[in-house]
Design a protein that fits this description.
Blueprint: E1 3-6, E2 9-12, E3 17-23, E4 32-38, E5 45-50, E6 57-59, E7 67-71, E8 77-82, E9 91-98, E10 112-113, E11 117-122
Parallel strand pairs: 2-11
Antiparallel strand pairs: 1-3, 3-8, 4-5, 4-9, 5-6, 7-8, 9-10, 9-11
C-alpha cells in the first residue's frame, strides 16, 4: 500500500475543498481508509474513516455534517469533501490505511500513512 494525498490549498472560511488519497501500491488485502489531521502545536486527530466496502463511515464530531468521506469503486481512491470550512480546520491532512478495519478508528491502528496535504482556511 502506497498512499498519496492531494487537493489541499488555501480557502476562505465557508468555502469548500475536496481531498483525494490514492493507493498506488498493490495489495490483495482489504483495508479501511482514514483521514487524520494535525494542526500546528497540536496532536494528530482523527477526522473520518470509511470501510473497505464503503458501507460504514465514521466522523469526528467536529466535522459531522460538513465533511463527507467516500471511496471510489476501484477501492484504491478515497475522497474527503469538506464544506463550510472553518479556520480551525486548518491543518496538514493525512490519509492512512488500516488492514484490520479497526472500530473505532485510531491512529495507532493504522498500518500505512501517506504524506500530508496542507489545508489552510482564512477567516
Amino acid at each position: 500500500v502506497q498512499l498519496q494525498a492531494s487537493g489541499g490549498g488555501l480557502v476562505q472560511a465557508g468555502g469548500s475543498l475536496r481531498l483525494s488519497c490514492v493507493n498506488s501500491g498493490r495489495t490483495r488485502s482489504s483495508y479501511s481508509m482514514n483521514w487524520f489531521r494535525q494542526a500546528p502545536g497540536k496532536e494528530r486527530e482523527f477526522v473520518a474513516a470509511i470501510s473497505w466496502s464503503g458501507d460504514t463511515t465514521y466522523y469526528a464530531d467536529s466535522v459531522k455534517g460538513r465533511f463527507t468521506i467516500s471511496r471510489g469503486s476501484d477501492k484504491s481512491t478515497m475522497y474527503l469533501q469538506m464544506n463550510r470550512l472553518k479556520p480551525e480546520d486548518t491543518a496538514v491532512y493525512y490519509c492512512a490505511a488500516d488492514l484490520q478495519g479497526s472500530e473505532p478508528p485510531a491512529d495507532y491502528n493504522m498500518d500505512f500513512w501517506g504524506k500530508g496535504t496542507q489545508v489552510t482556511v482564512s477567516s
